[in-house]
Structures are given as C-alpha cells and as structure tokens.
Write a structure and sequence with these properties.
This protein is α/β, with parallel strands linked by helices. It has one domain: 3-Layer(aba) Sandwich (Oxidized Rhodanese, domain 1), CATH 3.40.250.10. Strands 1-5-4-2-3 form a 5-stranded parallel beta sheet. The radius of gyration is 12 Å and the shape is globular. The chain starts with a strand and ends in an 8-residue tail after the last helix.
Length: 107
Amino acid sequence: MDCEITPEDLKSLLESNSDIVVLDCRESWEFETAKIAGSRHIPMNEIPARFQQELDAEKHIVVVCHHGVRSMNVTMWLRRQGLEKVQSLSGGIDLWARLVDPKVPLY
C-alpha cells in the first residue's frame, strides 16, 4: 500500500466503503475550521498516547492535516508501530477542499 492517497482516490473509497477511518491530526482550532465529514480527530501530539486504544490496526486509516506534511509523519510513525493500512492524504485538507469539496473552507 502506498504511503499517500490522492483526494480523488479517498473520495472514491469513502463513497464505496464505509470501513475507511479518516484520522485528522491537526490542532483543534484547525479541525473546527475545516474538516472532512465523519473524520476522527486526534491531534498529532496526542497520537502516541491514544492510538492503541482508539485506532483499529485492521482498518484502512487515512491521516489528514493541512497540506500533507504532518499527516505523512503520523502515517510513517503509525506504520512503524505495526499499523500497515495507513496512508497520508496528499495535499491535506487544502487539496481536498480545492479538488473534492469546495464547501470545506480554505485557511
């Protein structure tokens, strides 16, 4: 599985498969400003303490941040912890808003 997924590919997966977990790793104010409907919020700095209790290693997880840098760091860290089905959203919420859902605010 690639480390990144495009916004268009994530949209297709969400439309066809409700078993995808969208994990937003941004700060709370960012999550409140703009989010993908149905996404789960765990700020990046809280993931080490919370991932074992809150994430299912068997599920396909797509990590989201603003532009894709933090989400790639979280993706690689989670993969090192043994979660194999984790991908980072390429371009983050910003590219999602530009290509998939223009109702999501840009910031």
